[in-house]
TrEMBL record:
Belongs to the protein disulfide isomerase family. Keywords: Disulfide bond, Endoplasmic reticulum, Isomerase, Redox-active center, Repeat, Signal. One of its GO terms (cellular component) is endoplasmic reticulum lumen. This is protein disulfide-isomerase. It comes from Orbilia blumenaviensis.
Length: 427
């Protein structure tokens, strides 16, 4: 019988604890902000955000709540719909910084090129449709339009980096595709090719639309996506190549090498998005490529242990890992014997936690109180500072590396068109 995962409980005490009392429940699609997480979730996010500054006793705020939650549900995975309770003493400083004098006040934060978001008051209709219409226009566009004149340059630029290309009848990028590009900003380049670009279509052998493929990088052939044209499936498909490309890039660039005793000597990995997915680690070598030169935190759970939710994963990063370490969760039964042996793991009915650098050949076992959140925080801090005893990972076998997907040479099956943002009439 599988015991309760007490270590995960300690890891995510902050994750599973109810959020501060306010107008929106913990089950609400609205992202709940505080002064402590405002910068990480909004100011430093690559996603566009709309933020409601409210007070629970405000009648207009209560009237807005149904429409605001409906907008949040419609924008899920595309942009962030969030709120902060200005009646909470701990949040009053943040509300004051943005000059909030009345409730509800709605502001839109759009990521800027300088690293600071542009901020503007939302003056549109306070309806779900009005908020969605406006927020869709604020989604950053990191999708490159490729044609016969620019395709060579696009393919040659950062050739070691994975590239995702959508062949479509649409002239502009949809909110869904733009949101995907935001999710993988910095790790995968996104492009769109119109059906009229016959030379580019012939280059890739594309005959049907939409066709979505990923070029893994280097000389590897493109791999065509054969699932539904929905964000969850497409994101999972792209993520298979994002980690491998990042690992290859890091290995080629000595300047990105990270000191094993400091987490501040190189840029942190891309921030997880609010709907990010925790990948699995199929082999030592595959895991090494996924982590690159970074220190990773690995949580190995027994079969039947529920995976952390997207909100819990985000909270783990914010409250514990501080955006420093990539975080992975995987069931022990899915790991090879070589992997288990390499990191001192066993197939167990208990949760096991490791901080490790697969590329540098060491790992650290969590040895704190399994019920203490403070012990977990202190352990993470010691790992970050290098003040902890490391254990050596034995050499792993090359043949256990992840086998790249077989290149697809035939045109894909007819797929449903890439859907635009939620239809407004459905709001």
């Amino acid at each position: 019988m599988v015991h309760n995962p007490v270590v995960v409980a300690a890891l995510s005490a902050a994750l599973l604890a109810p959020l501060a009392a306010g107008m929106y429940s913990s089950n609400s699609p609205v992202i709940q902000l505080t002064s402590k997480n405002f910068a990480e979730k909004v100011l430093k996010s690559n996603h566009a955000s709309v933020v409601e500054f409210y007070a629970p006793w405000c009648g207009h705020c209560k009237n807005l709540k149904p429409a605001y939650e409906k907008a949040a549900e419609n924008m899920k995975g595309l942009a962030q719909v969030a709120a902060i309770d200005c009646d909470e003493d701990a949040n009053k400083r943040t509300c004051s910084e943005y000059g909030i004098q009345g409730f509800p006040t709605i502001k839109v934060f759009k990521p800027g090129k300088s690293g600071k978001p542009s901020i503007q008051d939302y003056q549109g209709p306070r309806t779900a449709k009005g908020i969605v219409d406006y927020l869709i226009e604020q989604i950053p566009n990191h999708v490159t339009r490729v044609n016969s004149k620019t395709v060579d340059g696009f393919l040659k630029e950062k050739n070691e980096t994975a590239k995702a290309i959508l062949f479509t009848t649409k002239g502009v990028a949809t909110p869904l595709f733009k949101a995907l590009a935001v999710d993988f900003l910095g790790s995968v380049a996104f492009a769109q090719v119109r059906d009229k670009e016959t030379e580019v279509l012939q280059l890739f052998g594309v005959e049907k639309f939409p066709t979505f493929l990923v070029l893994p990088g280097g000389t590897a052939e493109g791999v065509i996506y054969d699932g539904e044209m929905k964000k969850e499936g497409m994101a999972k498909f792209v993520s298979k190549f994002a980690g491998a490309a990042a690992g290859k890039s890091a290995a080629k660039d000595e300047k990105t090498a990270e000191s094993s005793t400091s987490s501040t000597s190189s840029a942190p990995p891309p921030r997880p998005t609010f709907d990010s997915t925790i990948p699995e680690a199929p082999s030592l070598e595959g895991f090494a490529a996924t982590c690159g030169n970074k220190i990773c935190v690995l949580v190995v759970t027994p079969d039947g242990t529920p995976a952390l939710t997207a909100q819990e994963k985000t909270n783990f990063y914010v409250n514990h890992v501080k955006q420093t370490f990539p975080f992975f969760q995987v069931q022990g039964s899915k790991l090879s014997p070589e992997f288990l042996k390499g990191f001192g793991l066993t197939v167990s009915d208990k949760v096991q936690v490791r901080a490790l650098s697969a590329k540098r050949g060491w790992y650290v076992e969590y040895d704190g109180d399994s019920t203490s959140e403070e012990d977990m925080k202190a352990w993470i801090d010691r790992v970050k500072m290098g003040e902890i005893r490391k254990q050596k990972i034995p050499p792993f076998e090359k043949e256990e590396a992840v086998t790249p997907p077989e290149p697809v040479k035939e045109a894909p099956k007819e797929e449903e068109p890439v859907k635009e943002a939620p239809k407004h009439e459905e709001l």
